[in-house]
Amino acid sequence: MLATFMEVLDTTVVNVSLPHIAGSLSASVDEAAWALTSYLVANAVVLPMTGWLSSFFGRKRTLMAAVTGFTLASFACGLAPSLSVLIMFRIIQGATGGALQPLSQAIMLEAFPPQDRGKAMAFWGLGIVVAPMLGPVIGGWLTDNYSWRWVFYINLPVGLASLFMAKLFIFDPPYLRREGRGIDYWGIGMLALGVGALQVVLDKGQEDDWFASHLILTLAVVAVAALATFVIHELRSRDPVVRLRVFKDRTYAAGVFLMTVLGFVLYAALLLVPVFLQTLLGYPALAAGIAMAPRGLGSFLMMPLVGTVLGKFDPRKVLAVGVLGASWSLYALSRLNLQAGYWDIFWPQFIQGVALAMIFVPLTTATMDPISKQEMGNATSMFNLMRNLGGSFGIACGTTYLARRQQFHTNLLGAFVNPLNPQVQTMRKGIETAMIAHGSDPAAAVRQSYISLWGMVQRQASMLSFVDTFLGLALVFLLVLPLLLVMKKPKHQGRGMPGH
């Protein structure tokens, strides 16, 4: 869990430090953003290969190599004298970090008997759900009080502790030691090319106006062609780098799709809420991070409870309650306005955290229930990859939809701001009178009155675009409820269940 927590924390902890990194290394914020993109691309490329790496080199050896590489790369990122060096070590950090989530999840699922997997996933899931919320708070505090370099240095003690415990307590199961497989060079190449190109498209698409950019269009074609070739090749290969036949199990396939949707909504909301708090409600970066803490608190309190009682209930029912709760929380966020207070934001966030715990734990337990131990590493790799890709799709779709709806509402509201509208005349005269009373020139007061009115239009249009986006995310959650009927009830019941 320490290794996973460290890796997930690093996906968000750098975000708030980007302006400081750009200024320190004499780069623009757009150039510094490649420190995020390079990490995500490398991470996405390695994630699906983790099952093959652990079977080829051994799970314990792969885990320790990944933790060591991630920790050393973090230290090197902190020492980076230029942006190009920082990006190079961020690529190494992303590549080594990509193996940490699926490896640690596979180890936890194997270490506990099926009836106790709910408890195991609850405690492991705390790292997955809480780390993205702590990232902006820790990143903002370290950057404000020390330096952006400490955002990377904090990984050193966590990495060393994880390495020490992995050495002492983790051992490879016998079947992993016996297994010998060939190297699927074509599969690895097509996977790296396809997933890498797709990640860049999702990360840079909105910024470059999507397919109006020749680079984005080219990369999208490359991604589709490479991934289609990869799927065909893997289904025919004798030693595939990713065993896609695991998707034949309908419970696993439905569970992976649900996790993709969870990533889509979770990561989109994680990005949009702090932007809403800072741009419209005027929260400073650190205060915005703290205002998001109730979500982490809800998950922190609920996850152990869900893991403990999961064996007494059908995981699909717990999952349905979680989906409804998460959808309601997003609907509540869509009811906010520019006068929203702290408690108006607290309760939807807290309920969302509770709901995420009720989704993550039963979903992981039910999805992995039909998977054999031999396939666990491969299955967890795809499970985590699709959550991350879902997150990338969520961020890309969320930011694009937000921008498009803001344009729509600006045009709609702006049409009412004209000299013939009596309300506009009244507001404009009020602003002009106030400015002249404070000594402003009458001509300047007239100009400023129109500027002020336009600012009001933009703020209201922005608020309405956030309302539309949160409501859209709530509907996305509701649409996946029928998929729960596709999943089978887990065969392995918890202790105390009838017939166990």
Summarize, please.
With about 500 residues, the chain is mostly helical. The protein has a domain at about 265-500: Growth Hormone, Chain: A (Up-down Bundle).
Topology at a glance:
Layout: H1 2-13, H2 18-24, H3 29-32, H4 34-46, H5 50-57, H6 59-79, H7 83-97, H8 100-111, H9 117-145, H10 150-153, H11 155-169, H12 174-178, H13 185-204, H14 214-236, H15 250-279, H16 285-291, H17 293-309, H18 315-333, H19 342-368, H20 376-414, H21 422-437, H22 442-479
Helix pairs in contact: 1-9, 4-7, 4-13, 5-6, 5-20, 6-7, 6-8, 6-11, 8-20, 9-16, 9-17, 9-19, 13-14, 13-20, 15-16, 15-19, 15-20, 15-22, 17-19, 18-19, 18-22, 20-22, 21-22
What would your notes on this structure say?
The chain is an all-alpha fold and about 500 residues long. The chain has a domain at about 265-500: Growth Hormone, Chain: A. About 75% of the residues lie in helices and about 0% in strands. The chain is built from 22 helices and no strands. It has helices at about 1-15, 20-25, 30, 35-45, 50-55, 60-80, 85-95, 100-110, 115-145, 150-155, 155-170, 175-180, 185-205, 215-235, 250-280, 285-290, 295-310, 315-335, 340-370, 375-415, 420-435, 440-480. It is globular.
What is the typical, i.e. mean, pLDDT?
79
Please report the distance between the alpha carbons of the first and last residues: 29 Å
Radius of gyration: 25 Å
* CATH domain class of the domain at 266-500: Mainly Alpha
The CATH topology of the domain at 266-500 turns out to be: Growth Hormone, Chain: A
Percent strand equals under 5%
The appropriate CATH architecture of the domain at 266-500 is: Up-down Bundle
